[in-house]
Amino acid sequence: MSLLDKVFQLIQSCREGLYWDFKECAYSINGDFVHDVLCMANSLSGCDKYIIMGVSDPKSGCEIKGLPKERKTQADYIDLLRNLQFADARPEIELRTFIFGEKEIDVLIVYECSLKPFYLTKQYEKVLPYHIYTRTLDSNTPKDKSADFGVVERMWRQRFNLDLPPKEKFEKILEDIPNWHIDVGNEENAYYEPSPEYQIVFSRPLKSRPARITIGKN
């Protein structure tokens, strides 16, 4: 399914959910944008999230209102996030524009990432530092609150792949190349620093051998 089809399907649902939200207007208050992105980025939905701007909320029937020509661009949003002080990783976003009839809407994609929880270390407007915001069903954590402890624990478990079966966990950590290290004094082994029990043993490829044919007697 294309992104356009998915967005149209979400609009037709006439409701908001764990990974999508409607905004009738583009963001004019930067703090609201930052708060919404943090809530979406920390959502436990397991998929990409969508903030659909130019569509009224469900109480008004999710009507496509469209957006004015003068509004924030993708570069504006990315620069805003780049200048904030996050604990370590920051959410990845992309802005896409679609035309319905003669009306333009913007879809802000907040990409799914296992590096949850995302949070600030310095207050930005009314978005508080060291507060972990998330999305529950169709509702965001208020700016003066923090997500429940159990939800935050699930985020950390997801970050460290603690809920995955060993085989799937190993497939994940193989992609984390910077954390693999050659064992000092033993160049035949490499270990994964966050979980040293995961190791790779190096060996030389076996030389090809000619096929052996055995002829038996009847």
Automatic annotation (TrEMBL):
What UniProt keywords are attached to this protein's entry? DNA-binding
Q: Which residues form the Schlafen AlbA-2 domain?
A: 16-142
Which InterPro entries does the protein's record reference?
Answer: Schlafen_AlbA_2_dom, Schlafen_AlbA_2_dom_sf
Q: What terms describe the molecular function in GO for this protein?
A: DNA binding
Q: What's the name of the protein?
A: DNA-binding protein
